[in-house]
Amino acid sequence: MEQKLAKVTDVAQKSFDFVVVGPSVSGCTIASRLSENPNVSVALLEAGNSHFDDPLVSVPDGWMQQVFDPEYDWVFRTTTQEKVVNNITTPSGGPDKSFFWSRGKGLGGSSALNFLFWTRPQREEIDAVEALGNPGWNWERYFAAAKRAETFLPSPANNFPEFRELYNKDSVGHSGPVPISFCRTVSGAELYFQKALEAHGVKTIDDGLGGSLTGTFKAAANIDPRTGTRSTAATGYIVPALDRPNLKVLTAAYVNRVLTKKEDDDVVATGVEFEHGGNVHVVHAAKEVILCASTVKSPHILELSGIGNRNVLEPLGIPVQVDLPSVGENLQDHLIFTSCVFKMKEEHGFVTSETITLPEVQAKLRSIYGEAAGPLSLACTGVTFLPLHTFSDRADELIEKVEKRIEQNADKLSPGLKEQYELQLKLLKDKNVPDLEIVVFPVNVHPAGPPKPHIGLLPSIGHPFSRGTIHASSSDPKVQPTIDPNYLAEEIDIDILVESAKFIRKVTQDGPWKDVSEAELIPGANITTDEQLHEFVKTNVSTTWHSSGTCSLAPKEKGGVVDTHLKVYGTKNIRVADLSILPLLTVVHTQATTYGIAEQAADIIKADHSI
Ligand SMILES: Cc1cc2nc3c(=O)[nH]c(=O)nc-3n(C[C@H](O)[C@H](O)[C@H](O)COP(=O)(O)OP(=O)(O)OC[C@H]3O[C@@H](n4cnc5c(N)ncnc54)[C@H](O)[C@@H]3O)c2cc1C
């Protein structure tokens, strides 16, 4: 397969209709869709390597070894965060006031190292994007586009059939490039959490991909059940397209900046500058440059190209092409409370990242799967989505508090943020819209020692009110941008995490969960009061790697970077089409959302050029 990739001489100094930066979830989708037309030429540039036939990519739980390895992971790092401590997702596993932001490097972007959850947003969340002033960016169009990315396939035998695989065939795609299914190996603890939730009034739902998420269910996964391997944007969209003469995919090509010229009042992209093998090259774009380099790198590349806030660019000596202050603003991320861990009773045979290494567990799994192909590996799959009123009896009080704060600060909010907050409040008040996710996490992130079944029940904020920034800190493209997620700047975010931790305690202290668990290891018996829990939660959080918003889709005067055609304001032919355009983060894991954005982007670009 490697020989089907482009050589630098196929791309450098050549001209293509479209130059796509970053074979991410979005970049692979768009490059593939555009090059379906043989009359359209496309160059797709990736900074990392191809990782074809690499077991760390193809084996579903290979992510555990990819994370923090610079061959696969950009290993970005945030600024020191004032209000929180990350105590897990650091290379040392020890506490750190800055956060390590893993991002996939290589064909497929983060789809090649993510945790495989395949989830779709709530209808109202996507409709909120349209309500921000983006006609056409609504649930109906998103849902149709998102389903085009996937082919839902029935699962083979799994190790815990009582944890049911429920779905609605009208809510999934049946002929898209990315095979999805339910994963084969689950921990088993998901079932007991589900039962415990049911005992507290939370419904098990049978249509988790249909736009109505409130409840608990087994999530689908980007796993091809025919091979037991990970489906990535590259395996789905690019590998089958590599024989197209009009598509050139170049790896190890680090894009420095978009090259532009002025035409009337607009900036026009003429191509991009990239480094390959220690040399700097140019590839020309006859029609467009499309940035799909992620929430971290797309705003960075724009700023390196002179498109951004004058006050950021001028001190760095970057000549301003378009003064667009919203580039790199409006950063949102799901913060997750990582330290709610239970020791489970051994007699139930729960499979975790620790116990799956035991020969007796492997033998049992093989006996269940028989001759079914593929490696043995574990995936996370137990998900629960809850509206604030479901998990907190302080819901009305918290809503009132945040309402007051917005009112008091209305004059100080950046353009468009008041409108965003009003929509977030509407979601928070809606008793059918989830504001929180709890995942059952069978990966032991805490106690060392002999393999034991440890299970985390980890809640994450769905619609954070805190906003951060990502900005260039140097004119040197190799110096990574300054990432400041500004975690927990808004009190409502920590309130939600604390309320969710209390809810998890309530659900697990007796009944079906208590029956199968030995003890709550962490936070544990010493953390009892609300104040203690508040402090504990703040010092035990992680990113979930779901950041969005730094090239927001919104009217320019409302903090937008791109318009409804995903064109960067002030430019004629530069688009951004990755997760960075999502102006309001949705409660779910973000890959299926990104595929949906990219499929819509491809439609728009084709229509704009009548191709
Ligand atoms: C560790 C981790 C776990 C996750 N788990 C899940 C999950 O379980 N479920 C889920 O739905 N989502 C998950 N996500 C999130 C999901 O994968 C991302 O939201 C999604 O991939 C975003 O897609 P994107 O197109 O915006 O960018 P990405 O997929 O991140 O891709 C960006 C691409 O651009 C390339 N690039 C960047 N800069 C340059 C440059 N200068 N030159 C050339 N190329 C460049 C990168 O190498 C990469 O290939 C996870 C993410 C991570 C990092």
User: What gyration radius follows from the Cα positions, in whole Å?
Assistant: 23 Å
Report low-confidence residues grouped into runs of 5 or more.
none
How many beta-strand segments? 27
Q: Roughly what fraction of the amino acids lie in strands?
A: 15-25%
Morphology: globular
Question: Describe the biggest sheet?
Answer: 7 strands, mixed
Q: Could you say which structural class the secondary elements and strand pairing correspond to?
A: alpha/beta
Number of continuous helical runs: 18
What is the mean pLDDT? 95
Name the bound molecules. flavin-adenine dinucleotide
Q: What proportion of the residues is helical, as a percent range? A: 25-40%
Q: How far apart lie the N and C ends?
A: 29 Å
Structure description:
- InterPro entries: FAD/NAD-bd_sf (IPR036188), GMC_OxRdtase (IPR012132), GMC_OxRdtase_N (IPR000172), GMC_OxRtase_C (IPR007867).
- Substrate binds at residue 380.
- Keywords: FAD, Flavoprotein, Oxidoreductase, Signal.
- By secondary structure, the protein is of the alpha/beta class.
- The strands form 9 sheets. Strands 1, 2, 12, 13, 14, 15 and 27 form a 7-stranded mixed β-sheet that branches. Strands 8-20-21-22-19-25 form a 6-stranded antiparallel β-sheet. Strands 3-4 form a two-stranded antiparallel sheet.
- The longest helix is centred in the C-terminal third of the chain and has 18 residues, at 491-508.
- It starts with 7 loop residues before the first helix and ends with a helix.
- The structure holds flavin-adenine dinucleotide.
- The site of flavin-adenine dinucleotide (FAD) has 39 residues, from helix 2, strand 13, helix 9 and helix 18.
